[in-house]
Amino acid sequence: MTRARYGGSSSGHGSGGGAHVVAQLPLQLLQLGGDGEDALLAVHDIGAVGYYAPRPVFDLAGLVTPEVVPVIREHDALMRMMCERGARYLMVLPDQRPAPEDDPRLGGEPIFTTGAPYAPAAGGGNMAVYVLNWGEGCAPP
Questions:
Q1: Hey, how many other C-beta atoms are within 10 angstroms of the C-beta on 91?
Q2: What is the tens place of the pLDDT at every residue in 79-138?
Q3: Burial, 138: exposed, middle or buried (Cβ in 10 Å; 0-12, 13-18, 19+)?
Q4: Environment class of 29 (CB within 10 Å of its CB; exposed 0-12, middle 13-18, buried 19+)
Q5: Cα–Cα distance for residue pair 124/59, rounded to 1 Å
Q6: Which DSSP symbol is given to 63?
Q7: Residue 93 Cα distances to 14, 15, 38, angstroms
Q8: What is the DSSP letter of 22?
Q9: pLDDT greater than 70 at residue 4
Q10: Which residues contact 84 (CB under 8 A, 6 or more apart)?
Q11: Residue 70 and residue 78: Cα distance in Å, rounded?
Q12: Please, are residues 109 and 70 in contact by the beta-carbon 8 Å criterion?
């Protein structure tokens, strides 16, 4: 678990990540409700989020969480690692989500989705924030 405090750019996926995505996030989403500053946020495009979010970040791309790299393409292993670390929130683009949209560990519908035109115009989807639900443990459903 790392508290990231550096600026950076988006992952280069043409995703609409980076500072303009963070600019769309209401302050309460960066602070994420009443969980305080210790609720772990799992995020793929860490750049501006890692800089502005006053909380620890679990980096799905492995920049500040390098132990992710060996399992970066193994979605069940990545979800298990997020669970074991206690990730409470997940912020990703649809193609970065490490579980199917209907996976109960995602906690249902996102609590926030950016409404930016950039990613859809490039053929992708908008960034979404999920409240993770680990249920009875870290095993896949």
A1: 29
A2: 999 999 999 999 999 999 999 999 999 999 998 888 888 889 999 999 899 999 999 888
A3: middle
A4: middle
A5: 21
A6: S
A7: 11, 7, 23
A8: H
A9: no
A10: 138
A11: 10
A12: no
Pair 42, 87: CB distance under 8 Å = yes
* Per-residue pLDDT at 14: 39
Q: Which DSSP helix (H) or strand (E) runs through 50?
A: helix 47-52
Residue ranges per structural domain of the chain: 19-131
Q: What is the reported pTM?
A: 0.77
What pairing do the DSSP bridges indicate for beta strands 87-92 and 40-43?
parallel
pLDDT, one tens digit per residue, over 25-78 is 555 555 555 565 678 889 987 777 777 766 788 999 998 899 999 999 999 999
Ramachandran region, residue 94 (left: φ > 0; alpha: ψ -120 to 50; beta: rest): alpha
Residue whose token pair is 């501006």: 48
